[in-house]
Amino acid sequence: MVGLTMVLPLLPFYATNLGATATTVGFLIAAFSMAQLVVSPVWGKFSDRYGRRPAILSGLLVTAVAYVLFAYAGSIVALAISRMVQGVGGGTIGVVQAYVADASTPAQRTRSLGWLSAVTSLGAVAGPAFGSLMIAIGGKAAPGLAAAGLATLVAVFAWRYLRESREVPMAMKGRTASGSGRRAVLRVVTHSNEPASRLIWIYTIGIGAFYGTGQISPLLLGERFGVTAHTAGYFIMYLGGVGVIVRALILGRVVDRLGEPALSRLGILLLSAGLVVTGLARSYPLLAVGFTLMPFGTAFLFPCVTGMLSHVVSGEERGLYMGVQQTFGGVSRVAFPLAAGFLMDRGGTGVPFWVSGVLVMLTLPLALMAGQTPLASSTASRA
Questions:
Q1: C-alpha distances in Å from residue 20, one per residue of 8, 23, 75, 80, 128
Q2: Whose CA, among 239, 269, 272, 283, lies 20 to 30 Å from 143?
Q3: Burial (CB count <10 Å: 0-12, 13-18, 19+), residue 314
């Protein structure tokens, strides 16, 4: 995440210097997510068949190559290729989640996933500062080369210290896995009442609602509170900072007391309320309430849903379904901002927040059913 966010803020400047329009910049930004959408289930299936460690190492090396391409990209096409290769390498996030799930006891799984999310958020905060420092020290190519060096160092560290999190039976190596990425994606759509599908839909709508409105929240802040480009970052940092604190210091204790199903339902309520309150806010106290409830909701909801998903699928398909969850989440992170912008143009700055809050609340019945599923069993269904 440090490497990714080192180069991402620089992308619009590099692209426009090469003659790109705003639409082209948007495509370059989206190219990462589009590549990640395609490869996430593939990486997951690969890790189920050959192990998590080879997938993680391969993803890191692909990422390092992508950053070198970014450093020396001299055309729009080269930038697009580097972004797509970055997306291929970044598609292993589901494998990382599966590794954490494998390596944690069932009782500690959600706590561990919360820590993973917390350190990821910290990396996203630190990356832009490192990128700015590198370009000041070494010029245009320096951030990409520094990010590549960082990815390579992490790969070396992982090669030396990262042990395989699960035993892959010899009979399974080289054999076609029981499920495929395409089949698993279709099953989520066509069998939405199954435990894994319900959890993936909760994740998809929740993460889309939060990130979709988050990306356009500066427009609401500017219209209602006079926030400018120079000060908007502090509000976004507050959202991220609260999320990190909750995941690192509060999540583990609360999940031990309430359990994953109940805490996921509380997360839905808090996220929905935060979105609606933010849409209504015309004073700083009300805005503070909304901007506090939202990260509390996501910190409770997403690790719990991912933790429950790791329980209801078999160990042989855990990587696959973690990848499928990332695929659906990626689609929602593309679709929700587009829909939110349209709603804001047509109905006003608060409308996307209200609509998103209602959509999140509509997932509550799915979460109620998730609480009735025995989490210790492997209930993944095969087509």
A1: 16, 8, 9, 11, 22
A2: 239
A3: middle
Tell me the C-alpha distance between 55 and 91, whole Å.
10
Per-residue pLDDT of the chain (383 residues; tens, 9 = 90+): 888 878 877 777 788 888 887 667 767 877 887 888 788 888 888 888 888 899 999 999 999 999 999 999 999 999 999 999 999 998 888 888 888 888 888 778 778 888 887 888 777 777 777 887 888 888 889 989 999 999 999 999 999 998 887 665 444 444 444 456 678 888 888 887 888 999 999 999 999 899 878 767 877 888 899 877 567 667 877 887 888 889 888 988 898 899 889 999 999 999 999 999 999 999 999 999 999 999 999 999 998 998 899 888 877 787 788 888 888 888 887 788 778 878 888 888 899 999 999 999 999 998 887 655 444 443 443 33
Token readout for 209 is: 């609602």
Sign, CA torsion 162/83/129/299: negative
Contact by Cβ (8 Å): 84, 35: yes
Q: Where are the alpha helices (DSSP H) in the chain?
A: 2-7, 11-17, 22-50, 52-71, 76-90, 93-103, 109-138, 142-161, 181-190, 195-225, 232-245, 251-258, 260-280, 284-312, 318-347, 351-361, 364-370
Contact assessment for residue 329 and residue 208, using Cβ atoms and an 8 Å cutoff: yes
CA 126 to chain centre: 17
The H or E element containing residue 381 is none
For 108, the token pair is 């500690």
Residue pointed to by tokens 């995941």? 247
For the full predicted model, state whether its pTM sits above 0.90.
no
Taking CA atoms, 126 is separated from 120, 149, 206, 242, in Å, by 10, 16, 25, 16
Q: Which of 326, 129, 101 is nearest to 237 (CA)?
A: 129
65 vs 86: CA distance, rounded Å: 8
Identity of the amino acid at 290: G
Task: Dig out the tokens for 192 from the structure.
Answer: 């939405």
10 Å CB burial of residue 293 (0-12, 13-18, 19+) is buried
Give phi and psi for 371, each to the nearest 5.
Answer: -70, -15
